[in-house]
Amino acid sequence: MADVVLKTCKECKQELPRDANFYKAGKYWQSRCKPCHNKSRKSYKRWVNPNPPPKKPRAFQALSFETRCSVIKKINDGVDLKDISRDHDIKYETLKRWKRDDKLIIKIDTKELSQ
Ligand SMILES: [Zn+2]
What we know:
6 helices, alpha+beta, 2 domains, 14% strand, rod-shaped, binds zinc ion, two-stranded antiparallel sheet
């Protein structure tokens, strides 16, 4: 009869016959016995970056807050897009597209507010 190799589970500290009670991952034996291994697997969480890099504002949102407010105010006041375009050095075509696509809104990053 072959020697039975015993291995201690790092979780439940039981010394068990290794080959029957532990999983093998490639060359290596898992440090937990099968029941403990399965239990701990269930608690695995997908790693989530706690500090995700801030999203770079794009398009209209990349303009300064003052500019955005001013553009929106002028549009509400009925100022011609061509004039707004000239005043703020924004391409007329771009401005027109933003307006058409409802991009002329101010998105406020709630993280910014809490800082
Ligand atoms: Zn165990």
